[in-house]
Amino acid sequence: MTISESSPRGEPAIRIIAMPSDTNPTGDIFGGWLMSMMDMAGGSTAYQRARGRVATVAVESIEFHRPVRVGDEVSCYTEVIRVGRSSMAVRVDVWVRPGRGGDLVKVTQGVLTFVAIDDDGHPRPVDAPLDASSSRWP
Asked: N or C: lower Cβ tally within 10 Å for the chain?
């Protein structure tokens, strides 16, 4: 994966506008805020793939390529890249459309690992059939 990609890969999972409350003292968006958006986007994709609850268990990598500024439209694109018995790795790429307009630019990429869990928080097989009491989105 390289920064020279010309368009997003994967499925769009989150789109949000970076706000002034998300900045550091120099006016750039906090890396931690961006990481939380990546976790939410990856978690949503993992939840759908596991058909139920998941928990983030590891961040394999995150690379920040460019700063994000207030007013930028931040979009997270995700793709499940590896599935084990109870875990899965999700690639999350973050693209930005500058608030003043312009082309999409890839600013961050990472891989997060999620584990499928049951209602008691114990790992369960990703592909296990769910019973009626399992947590599900409508």
From this structure: C
